[in-house]
Amino acid sequence: MSRQVLVIEDDDDIAQLVKLQLAGLSCDVRVINDGRAGLAEALAQPYDLLVLDLMLPGVDGLEICRRLRSEQRYTPILMLTARSTELDRVLGLEMGADDYLTKPFSVLELVARVKALFRLVDVLVNPPADAPKAIEAKDLRIDIEKREVTVRRAPICLTAKEFQLLLHFAQNPGRVYSRSQLLDQVWGYSHSGYEHTVNSHINRLRAKIETDPNEPEYIQTVWGVGYKFRNASRD
Fold this sequence. Notes:
Elements: E1 3-8, H1 12-23, E2 27-32, H2 35-44, E3 49-53, H3 61-69, E4 77-81, H4 86-94, E5 99-102, H5 107-125, E6 134-137, E7 140-143, E8 148-151, E9 154-156, H6 160-170, H7 179-187, H8 195-209, E10 219-222, E11 226-229
Parallel strand pairs: 1-2, 1-3, 3-4, 4-5
Antiparallel strand pairs: 6-7, 7-8, 8-9, 10-11
Helix pairs in contact: 1-5, 2-3, 4-8, 6-8, 7-8
Function: This protein is a positive regulator for the phosphate regulon. Transcription of this operon is positively regulated by PhoB and PhoR when phosphate is limited.
Keywords: DNA-binding, Phosphoprotein, Transcription, Transcription regulation, Two-component regulatory system
Protein name: Phosphate regulon transcriptional regulatory protein PhoB
């Protein structure tokens, strides 16, 4: 069964290149060149993936991200940006993009990122049969089957990548992971120079689940090495 992909990109050459590459992954791709029309389409029906340019006429990619993440329905978002500053990349992640590519990008990297996002969603939708249904640590509860997270019984809204990152930590309490290990095991690829993607996601997770993100109870920094999950109920 083909996956439905929406590409919102005003550069027609890039849009057609993306469409061609994703067609090779058995994707049914629709291309829209205007931000306002693209947002309307993304809200009108579910897609398996949204490939989104940052700079668009009408409504920019950041606003589209923000609007989509305010909805209950989740759609994985791969953001494309011609800007090279870290601030622009972090802004995209802060608004809810799952990943990003900086133009110009190689088609091999594009395909690798898309495959990684599809694998991530597949794992979340179809967890292993022997996996526990929930993990609890102090006031934090992760319902794996329903893909829901609560802190002190209050629901926490996470993107698929944030959920997978938190689940990866919680399933391995006490184990220290470097940024490159997390890129490989959670994002599904290893590329030097993308470690700040891990930092941004961890900062967002802490802001959502920690009482005091500066003194985290759950996701702790191991200086000079990486991060670990402390199961507070067992300390």
